[in-house]
Amino acid sequence: MRRETQHVLLLLLGGALLRIAADDTFLRYVRPSHRWLLLAAGAVMVLLAAIALVRDLRGARVGSHHDHSVAERHAPWLLLVPVLVIALVAPPALGADSVTRVGNSPAVLPDADVFTPLPPGGAPDLPVMEFVQRAMFDKAGTLDGRDVTLTGFAVRRGAAVELARLTISCCAADARAARVRLQGGPALDGFAQDTWLRVRGTLVPGSATPAEHYVPAMVVRSVEPAAAPSDPYEY
Amino acid sequence: MSSAGCAETATPGRFGCHHFSVSTTLRAPRVTSLHVFCGVLVLAILARPLITSAMSAPALSIAGTVFVAVCAQALPFLVLGVLLSGAIAAFVSPAVLRRVLPASPNSAVAVAGVAGIALPGCECASVPVARRLIGQGVPDAAALTFLLAAPAVNPVVLVATAVAFPGEPRMVLARFVGSLATACVMGWLWQRFGRAEWITARARRPVETPPGTSRWLVLAETARHDLVSAGGFLVVGAVAAAALSVLVPAAWTETLAGHLVLAVAVMAVLAVLLALCSEADAFVAASLSVLPLLPRLVFLVVGPAVDVKLIALQAGTFGRSFAARFAPVTFAVAIICALLTGWAIL
Asked: What sign has the CA pseudo-torsion B104, B110, B114, B120?
């Protein structure tokens, strides 16, 4: 492959990283703190390509091995794959399909035995993962009888509806699902798979049983569709 | 790749490698990689509706997201690695490295393993660095030990492990000891049985720059060269990881509780197939709470040492004949080291 083609590929790849970090697109793939790494990496790629382009244009002769293997000679073409996938498709954040795909194994970390009391107020907002952690591990019963508000997307399993949210540690490849079974009767029927919902309700105490794969249940008081949040994951 | 243009020039003898020679514009049109490149772009843009509708199938959509996620996660660390690699080529002379490392190869291996603590990054960063260390005359065994140790024993990874296993500080210790042992054992094995010719000759060669080039330009050219070649192989690894994340049935981990031997085997294989970043794998391991700690430790020790993304990167950097030997042996050594430390510590 000609050196110019390599430089152009590197420019495009750096540009693609800068592009997804410039707005909220990167939040579909990695955690928010990764933005600075993406910006730095994109800038370095553009800079390295620009330096090499300028040097080549000035006629500096760089490098002349002739024994590259076929794989080594063609490997840089693959840099085009992420560029094209980002530019043409920009895959969406993981959602209900990936929740149903991972099956039923519980994916919740024991966070603490002692949880701080819920914030005061009518129905405080909680991350879905924290709600499930409290339901599974909290011995002080901080959720019992309290109204809380959860934001997540709808996952339909037959007639049943779950509220789910994915948690990532580094990137979407390590996503884990936190799920809550919603008990709300006909009010839930209208919501299609992947609809973002704001649900207000109360934990059904003792509902995170092994038979239910440790997925707690919630009695829904009110539910309304919500706009998809700019960062789809919890961290 | 620095000279690959020559390989496509039909008559390299006549025009040499100088791509800007006017003669190319006067001759009959010849297809170069730039033409191919433009063709691919035009095709991709024309086929965009087809591509987007194909990618909307759930499995492909998930794989696409995971693919971009692995690339976006790993590329900054690869950039860090190639910058370090360039800095080593430009500023660290073989003489300095010889002074720093013990003369005995076996102690050099141990020093290289402990030195891995100092590179806070994922496994992608350590491959180009290890390659450049070999290029600067560090013994192969010591550089390979560094390659295996750096992603697994650095403070960022250990802190992440401690956070993921809050009630289990021994997990952090076991991971540190198991990974360091894997790296050192592999180094000593290489010292005893390894052959220099298994590593491709191009890995040892510095990137060529005209004599008198400033050190900063040597850094830039080395980093660019390593980034372009290793980046392509990272993409191979990301495609493999994305495909496997969809293809590996989740049921694998659900039926394992109570089968210790099977659980160890499956978790070791999963560590290779899923290719998680070493800073994130502890959280995935911790979430598989139906399993005992031992198979999860195996997952944490095997993952940073050998996975599909790393195998692709190593094959691209050190050659296929190296990867075909190094990866399976590392896999076995990592499992054994994890089991032994697990029994001793957990």
From this structure: positive
Distance (Å) from the C-alpha of residue A24 to the closest C-alpha of chain B? 13
Q: State the 10-residue block means of pLDDT for chain B, 346 residues long.
A: 40 42 53 84 88 86 92 90 90 87 91 86 83 90 93 87 85 95 96 92 81 87 89 87 81 75 91 84 80 92 92 90 95 97 92
Cα–Cα distance, B128 to B19 (Å, whole number): 28
Query: What is the sign of the dihedral through the CA atoms of B171, B172, B177 and B178?
Result: positive
CB B288 within 8 A of CB B259: no
* Dist. CA B77–CA A67, nearest whole Å: 28
- Across B85-108, b (16+ Cβ under 10 Å) vs e yields bbbbbbebeeeebeeebeeebeeb
Q: Is the CB of A65 less than 8 angstroms away from the CB of B167?
A: no
3-state helix, strand, coil in chain A (%, to 5): 40, 20, 40
Six token digits for residue B27: 């001759």
Tokens for A159, please give them.
């007639």
**Main-chain dihedrals φ then ψ at residue A200, nearest 5 degrees:** -110, 130
Interface of A with B in 39-78 (CB under 8 A): 40-41, 44-45, 47-49, 51-52, 55-57, 59-69, 71-78
- The first and second tokens of residue A15, run together, are 């540009």
Q: How long a stretch of residues is chain B?
A: 346
The answer to whether residue A6 neighbours chain B at the CB level (below 8 Å) is yes
Write the single-letter amino acid at A230.
S
- Alpha-carbon distance B280 to A168, whole Å? 8
Q: Which residue has the tokens 């001793």?
A: B344
Strand segments, DSSP code E, in chain B are none
Q: Look up the pTM and report it.
A: 0.85
User: What b/e readout covers B198-222, taking b as 16+ CB neighbours within 10 angstroms?
Assistant: bbbebbeeebbbeeebeeebbbbbb
User: Which positions ≥6 away from B196 have C-beta within 8 Å?
Assistant: B140
Rounded Cα distance, A132 and A150, in Å: 11
